[in-house]
Amino acid sequence: MTIKERTFLFNIAVILYNIILGLIIEAVLLIALLFFLAEHPNLSESIFSQIALPVLLLIGLIAAMAISVHTVGWAIRKFHLEDKLDPKVVSRYQKKL
């Protein structure tokens, strides 16, 4: 298997991981918001609920991206994939020390 083929499969795996991770984080945040609004019914009728949802989704998106970059970088180091993948892909996830 060539470096190009390995990189393609790695990118597909990272895409699937990002989708699953993003859905899990967003679901947890939405469930937490629903529980919070159930405990405070007066807030659910105010403008707070209209502002909270977009802000919560943005926070979830940023958190998912940050977690993804760190975990994919960890996986590259843990499984010694630096020489098996395209250097451009590895440099995207590796921090220069």
Radius of gyration: 19 Å
* Overall mean confidence score, pLDDT: 91
Low-confidence stretches: none
Helix/strand structural class: mainly alpha
Total helical elements? 4
Distance between the termini: 30 Å
Q: Which outline best applies? A: rod-shaped
Question: Beta-strand level of the residues, as a percent range?
Answer: under 5%
Task: Tell me the total number of β-strands.
Answer: 0
Helix content: over 70%
Instruction: Characterize the biggest β-sheet.
Output: none
List the secondary-structure elements in sequence, H or E. HHHH
Question: What descriptive keywords fit this protein?
Answer:
single chain, 97 residues, rod-shaped, mainly alpha
Structure, described:
- The chain is mainly alpha-helical.
- 81% of the residues lie in helices and 0% in strands.
- It contains 4 helices and no strands.
- Helix 1 packs antiparallel against helix 3 (48-78).
- The longest helix has 37 residues, at 3-39.
- The relative contact order is 0.14.
- The model has no long low-confidence stretch (mean pLDDT 91).
